[in-house]
Amino acid sequence: MFIDPAVNMKPEPLRYSPYKALIVPRPIGWITTISAAGVVNLAPFSFFNGITDDPPCVMYCPNGTHPDGGPKDSLRNVEETGEFVFNLCNWDLREKMNETAAHMDRGVDEMAEAGLEAVPSKLVKPPRVAASPAAFECKYVQTVDLPESRNGKPSHVVIGEVIGIHIDDSVIVDGIVDIGLLQPVARLGYMDYAVVNEGFTMMRPD
Ligand SMILES: Cc1cc2nc3c(=O)[nH]c(=O)nc-3n(C[C@H](O)[C@H](O)[C@H](O)COP(=O)(O)O)c2cc1C
User: Fold this and answer.
1) 84 CB less than 6 Å from ligand 1?
2) Which pTM was predicted?
3) Torsion angle, CA of 125/112/89/157, rounded to 10 degrees?
4) Whether the CB of 77 sits within 6 Å of ligand 1
5) Three-state SS for 98?
Protein backbone atom coordinates (compact mmCIF):
# COMPACT_ATOMS: atom_id res chain seq x y z
CA MET A 1 0.00 0.00 0.00
CA PHE A 2 1.04 3.62 -0.42
CA ILE A 3 0.09 6.41 2.00
CA ASP A 4 -0.01 10.13 1.26
CA PRO A 5 0.20 11.65 4.77
CA ALA A 6 -1.40 14.88 3.57
CA VAL A 7 -4.54 12.95 2.54
CA ASN A 8 -5.09 10.12 5.03
CA MET A 9 -2.62 8.51 7.43
CA LYS A 10 -4.81 5.43 8.00
CA PRO A 11 -6.47 4.24 4.79
CA GLU A 12 -8.23 0.84 4.93
CA PRO A 13 -7.42 -1.63 6.43
CA LEU A 14 -5.27 0.36 8.89
CA ARG A 15 -6.92 1.14 12.21
CA TYR A 16 -4.34 3.69 13.29
CA SER A 17 -1.59 5.75 11.70
CA PRO A 18 1.32 3.33 11.10
CA TYR A 19 3.88 6.15 11.10
CA LYS A 20 5.38 5.65 14.54
CA ALA A 21 5.10 1.86 14.26
CA LEU A 22 7.56 2.07 11.36
CA ILE A 23 10.24 4.10 13.17
CA VAL A 24 11.16 1.52 15.75
CA PRO A 25 12.49 1.07 18.31
CA ARG A 26 12.78 4.72 19.34
CA PRO A 27 14.98 5.56 22.33
CA ILE A 28 13.18 7.48 25.02
CA GLY A 29 14.62 10.82 26.06
CA TRP A 30 13.44 11.22 29.63
CA ILE A 31 14.11 14.92 29.92
CA THR A 32 14.54 17.03 33.06
CA THR A 33 14.24 20.80 32.72
CA ILE A 34 13.82 23.59 35.24
CA SER A 35 11.81 26.80 34.92
CA ALA A 36 13.14 30.27 35.69
CA ALA A 37 11.10 30.04 38.92
CA GLY A 38 12.98 26.82 39.82
CA VAL A 39 10.21 24.26 39.21
CA VAL A 40 11.51 20.89 37.97
CA ASN A 41 9.81 19.19 35.03
CA LEU A 42 10.37 15.61 33.88
CA ALA A 43 8.80 14.17 30.72
CA PRO A 44 9.47 11.37 28.21
CA PHE A 45 10.06 12.04 24.51
CA SER A 46 10.34 9.25 21.95
CA PHE A 47 11.17 11.73 19.24
CA PHE A 48 14.64 11.77 20.76
CA ASN A 49 18.06 10.76 19.54
CA GLY A 50 21.77 11.42 19.44
CA ILE A 51 22.58 13.43 16.32
CA THR A 52 26.37 13.78 16.34
CA ASP A 53 29.19 12.70 18.64
CA ASP A 54 31.85 15.43 18.48
CA PRO A 55 30.82 17.47 20.26
CA PRO A 56 28.09 15.07 21.37
CA CYS A 57 24.63 16.52 20.70
CA VAL A 58 21.13 15.16 21.26
CA MET A 59 17.67 16.31 20.27
CA TYR A 60 14.12 15.93 21.59
CA CYS A 61 10.86 17.14 20.11
CA PRO A 62 8.25 18.80 22.34
CA ASN A 63 5.34 18.77 19.90
CA GLY A 64 1.87 20.15 20.41
CA THR A 65 1.01 22.31 23.38
CA HIS A 66 0.54 22.30 27.14
CA PRO A 67 -3.13 21.95 28.17
CA ASP A 68 -3.05 25.70 28.97
CA GLY A 69 -2.47 26.35 25.25
CA GLY A 70 1.14 27.55 25.55
CA PRO A 71 4.32 25.57 24.86
CA LYS A 72 4.97 22.32 26.73
CA ASP A 73 7.03 22.84 29.89
CA SER A 74 9.99 20.96 28.35
CA LEU A 75 10.18 23.61 25.61
CA ARG A 76 9.35 26.68 27.68
CA ASN A 77 11.82 25.72 30.43
CA VAL A 78 14.76 24.93 28.17
CA GLU A 79 14.31 28.21 26.32
CA GLU A 80 14.07 30.08 29.65
CA THR A 81 17.00 28.50 31.45
CA GLY A 82 19.15 26.94 28.70
CA GLU A 83 19.82 23.50 30.17
CA PHE A 84 18.37 19.98 30.28
CA VAL A 85 19.25 16.47 31.38
CA PHE A 86 18.59 13.25 29.46
CA ASN A 87 17.90 10.39 31.88
CA LEU A 88 18.01 6.86 30.50
CA CYS A 89 14.83 4.90 31.23
CA ASN A 90 15.49 1.23 31.95
CA TRP A 91 13.12 -1.66 32.55
CA ASP A 92 12.79 -0.96 36.29
CA LEU A 93 11.83 2.68 35.66
CA ARG A 94 9.27 2.08 32.89
CA GLU A 95 6.17 2.77 34.98
CA LYS A 96 7.61 5.87 36.63
CA MET A 97 8.61 7.15 33.18
CA ASN A 98 5.05 6.67 31.96
CA GLU A 99 3.66 8.52 35.02
CA THR A 100 5.75 11.57 34.14
CA ALA A 101 3.96 11.89 30.77
CA ALA A 102 0.87 13.16 32.63
CA HIS A 103 0.07 16.80 31.95
CA MET A 104 0.48 18.73 35.16
CA ASP A 105 0.26 22.31 36.28
CA ARG A 106 3.38 24.37 35.62
CA GLY A 107 3.93 24.74 39.37
CA VAL A 108 4.22 20.97 40.01
CA ASP A 109 7.63 19.30 40.47
CA GLU A 110 7.03 16.25 38.27
CA MET A 111 9.98 14.29 39.62
CA ALA A 112 8.77 14.61 43.20
CA GLU A 113 5.18 13.93 42.11
CA ALA A 114 6.27 10.58 40.60
CA GLY A 115 8.11 9.70 43.83
CA LEU A 116 11.47 9.77 42.08
CA GLU A 117 14.58 10.80 43.98
CA ALA A 118 16.40 13.72 42.37
CA VAL A 119 20.17 14.05 42.51
CA PRO A 120 21.89 17.37 41.71
CA SER A 121 23.69 17.53 38.37
CA LYS A 122 27.36 18.55 38.26
CA LEU A 123 27.25 21.27 35.60
CA VAL A 124 23.59 22.19 35.02
CA LYS A 125 20.66 23.17 37.24
CA PRO A 126 18.08 20.51 36.25
CA PRO A 127 18.57 17.47 38.52
CA ARG A 128 19.03 13.86 37.40
CA VAL A 129 16.80 10.91 38.19
CA ALA A 130 18.86 9.13 40.87
CA ALA A 131 17.71 5.64 39.84
CA SER A 132 18.56 6.09 36.17
CA PRO A 133 21.69 4.12 35.12
CA ALA A 134 22.90 6.87 32.77
CA ALA A 135 22.31 10.58 32.27
CA PHE A 136 23.61 13.36 30.02
CA GLU A 137 23.89 16.93 31.26
CA CYS A 138 23.11 19.20 28.30
CA LYS A 139 23.45 22.84 27.30
CA TYR A 140 20.69 24.15 25.02
CA VAL A 141 21.91 24.94 21.50
CA GLN A 142 18.80 25.89 19.53
CA THR A 143 15.17 25.18 18.72
CA VAL A 144 14.18 24.30 15.16
CA ASP A 145 10.53 25.01 14.35
CA LEU A 146 8.87 22.33 12.21
CA PRO A 147 5.82 22.78 9.96
CA GLU A 148 2.54 23.11 11.88
CA SER A 149 0.27 20.07 12.05
CA ARG A 150 -2.91 19.98 9.97
CA ASN A 151 -4.84 21.13 13.06
CA GLY A 152 -2.47 24.04 13.60
CA LYS A 153 -0.31 22.56 16.39
CA PRO A 154 3.36 23.53 16.56
CA SER A 155 6.24 21.04 16.51
CA HIS A 156 9.82 21.69 17.51
CA VAL A 157 13.23 20.08 17.67
CA VAL A 158 15.29 21.08 20.70
CA ILE A 159 19.01 20.51 20.21
CA GLY A 160 21.48 20.38 23.08
CA GLU A 161 25.19 19.74 23.50
CA VAL A 162 26.12 17.03 25.99
CA ILE A 163 28.57 18.54 28.48
CA GLY A 164 28.59 15.76 31.08
CA ILE A 165 27.87 12.02 31.05
CA HIS A 166 27.00 9.92 34.11
CA ILE A 167 27.12 6.12 33.97
CA ASP A 168 26.38 3.79 36.86
CA ASP A 169 29.58 1.75 37.27
CA SER A 170 27.48 -1.40 37.74
CA VAL A 171 26.54 -1.50 34.02
CA ILE A 172 30.18 -1.37 32.83
CA VAL A 173 31.73 -4.80 32.22
CA ASP A 174 35.17 -5.34 30.61
CA GLY A 175 35.31 -1.67 29.65
CA ILE A 176 32.01 -1.53 27.78
CA VAL A 177 28.43 -0.68 28.66
CA ASP A 178 26.67 -4.05 29.02
CA ILE A 179 23.29 -3.87 27.27
CA GLY A 180 21.95 -6.81 29.30
CA LEU A 181 22.58 -4.83 32.48
CA LEU A 182 21.50 -1.45 31.08
CA GLN A 183 18.11 -2.77 29.84
CA PRO A 184 16.97 0.42 28.08
CA VAL A 185 13.28 0.74 27.29
CA ALA A 186 12.33 1.90 23.80
CA ARG A 187 9.10 3.00 22.19
CA LEU A 188 7.39 1.04 19.43
CA GLY A 189 4.14 1.97 17.65
CA TYR A 190 0.69 2.19 19.23
CA MET A 191 0.95 1.71 23.02
CA ASP A 192 3.82 -0.77 22.70
CA TYR A 193 7.35 -0.74 24.07
CA ALA A 194 10.46 -2.91 23.79
CA VAL A 195 13.23 -3.60 26.25
CA VAL A 196 16.68 -4.11 24.79
CA ASN A 197 18.51 -6.84 26.65
CA GLU A 198 20.61 -8.49 23.98
CA GLY A 199 22.47 -7.38 20.89
CA PHE A 200 24.70 -8.82 18.18
CA THR A 201 28.02 -7.70 16.75
CA MET A 202 28.82 -7.03 13.10
CA MET A 203 32.08 -5.49 11.89
CA ARG A 204 32.09 -2.78 9.21
CA PRO A 205 33.52 -3.66 5.77
CA ASP A 206 36.38 -1.12 6.10
C1 LIG B 1 6.95 7.03 25.98
C2 LIG B 1 6.43 8.41 25.68
C3 LIG B 1 7.00 9.14 24.67
C4 LIG B 1 6.55 10.43 24.37
N5 LIG B 1 7.15 11.12 23.36
C6 LIG B 1 6.78 12.40 23.09
C7 LIG B 1 7.43 13.16 22.08
O8 LIG B 1 8.36 12.70 21.41
N9 LIG B 1 7.02 14.44 21.88
C10 LIG B 1 6.01 15.01 22.63
O11 LIG B 1 5.69 16.17 22.41
N12 LIG B 1 5.38 14.31 23.60
C13 LIG B 1 5.74 13.03 23.85
N14 LIG B 1 5.13 12.33 24.86
C15 LIG B 1 4.15 13.02 25.71
C16 LIG B 1 4.88 13.94 26.71
O17 LIG B 1 5.72 13.19 27.58
C18 LIG B 1 3.86 14.74 27.54
O19 LIG B 1 3.15 15.60 26.68
C20 LIG B 1 4.53 15.50 28.63
O21 LIG B 1 3.57 15.90 29.54
C22 LIG B 1 5.33 16.67 28.10
O23 LIG B 1 4.80 17.87 28.51
P24 LIG B 1 5.57 18.86 29.47
O25 LIG B 1 6.87 19.17 28.81
O26 LIG B 1 4.61 20.03 29.53
O27 LIG B 1 5.74 18.14 30.79
C28 LIG B 1 5.51 11.01 25.14
C29 LIG B 1 4.92 10.27 26.17
C30 LIG B 1 5.36 8.97 26.42
C31 LIG B 1 4.73 8.16 27.53
Assistant:
1) no
2) 0.97
3) -50
4) no
5) helix
